[in-house]
Amino acid sequence: MVRLKHRYILFEILYPPSAYGTSREQKEKFSEFSQTPKDALLHMHSPSPSAVSPRSILLLLKRVIVDHYGEFASGTVGSLIIVKYFSNRTSTGILRCSRNDFHIVVAALALIDKIETHRVVVRSVHVSGTIRKCEDFSIRRARKLMADLGKEDEVERGLDEFISMFKSGDREDDDE
């Protein structure tokens, strides 16, 4: 029996403010964006709207692969991609793909610039052979981000909630 080897990609969706805002509120957001590094972090790491779901991310990723890599790559890579985890609150997710094709998936994530009507930047943060290592990296990264934002008193409460999302049993075991 042949063992299938996978790669897990931890990604985040960032929401940069638009420089071409039509409303007064959008223009104010853009001008506040560069005031301090803390403001920039807060604006970029905002929660995802409810329209952004694991299914919409997967369909968009497959469409980007077809557009940029063709039908052959879509057939080989697209059939093996699964969104294992996505949180609208933290705008982070974990994808599973084939070990041989993870470079194409990482590049396709970088090519996504719009989800639904929202302008986005999708960043591949970490690639690992196990989902557990991606989860651990995500927890360490969230802890550092909270410390950078200066919310030390909320760190423990937020991290406990974040860790409980991974341990809730929503994801299936990967013993394939």
From TrEMBL:
Component of ribonuclease P, a protein complex that generates mature tRNA molecules by cleaving their 5'-ends. Keywords: Nucleus, tRNA processing. Its main location: nucleus. GO terms for biological process: endonucleolytic cleavage in ITS1 to separate SSU-rRNA from 5.8S rRNA and LSU-rRNA from tricistronic rRNA transcript (SSU-rRNA, 5.8S rRNA, LSU-rRNA); intronic box C/D snoRNA processing; nuclear-transcribed mRNA catabolic process, RNase MRP-dependent; tRNA 5'-leader removal. Gene3D superfamilies: Ribonuclease P, Pop5 subunit. Belongs to the eukaryotic/archaeal RNase P protein component 2 family. It is found in: Nucleus. GO terms for cellular component: nucleolar ribonuclease P complex; ribonuclease MRP complex. One of its GO terms (molecular function) is ribonuclease P RNA binding. It catalyses: Endonucleolytic cleavage of RNA, removing 5'-extranucleotides from tRNA precursor. It comes from the Eukaryota. SUPFAM superfamilies: Rnp2-like. Its EC number is 3.1.26.5. This is Ribonuclease P/MRP protein subunit POP5. Pfam families: RNase_P_Rpp14.
